[in-house]
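seq:
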Amino acid sequence: MIVMIPEKGKPILWEEMTWMEVEQFVKKMDMAILPTAATEQHGPHLPLAVDTIDCYEVAKRISARLGIPVLPPICYGCSQSHGDFPGTISLRPETVTRTICEIAEWLHKAGIRRLLILNGHMWNWGPIYSARENIRYDYRDMQVRVLNWWETTEKTMKKLVDDCSEQPMYLHANIAETSCMLAIRPDLVSMDKAVDDACYTTFFEHRMDQYTKTGIAGGAATKSTKEYGEELLSEVVDQLVEKIKKGLTEEPANKDRKS
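struct:
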């Protein structure tokens, strides 16, 4: 039987393998990356697919470095908070949770025992962590980790939230997201439509259409550059790779292990 040998330095995409290749591949690599993202408005200058494109790109770069297969991204997330901006497509939180759990079920059948859920959309947190709890209960031999792709060092995270560091929940379509898109898909960015919409802090968490007319929050979008985007992506991937390496060799927790 001829089995695909992944080309060094290129991402391994789950959907491009045959079932026979998966069967052989998981014997040596039992970890997979599931990107979770969204289809939602990102201001007048960015496409609806920003979260999916950014998260998938980071996942593929990690795959190219570590040889971990990347699953097709979940392109719909919990985006109800955007309100009435046209174009946004949202799933209910319980739907996102169930989708992830059912994907995990089939991954477990295929032999995957380590699952990294790489998140690309802030408001997916609730349903994703709920899915994690179900997975940990249903599959005692599966190790699972939820990691936001921007969850790296404090220095890099500060760059990503720029002038909105006091209230990162209002980070959206700002200089960081715009710059990353310029580095990945510049053809989808309309910089002539970018505006610098100021951010501010609130006690309650409001819908996007309640506090911004443009859909932008975080400011400085007009200062975005391809170079800054590549700098951010490179930093993030370098830092995530070092974290994820540990997961490739970490043994499952053992209740009999001595402290």
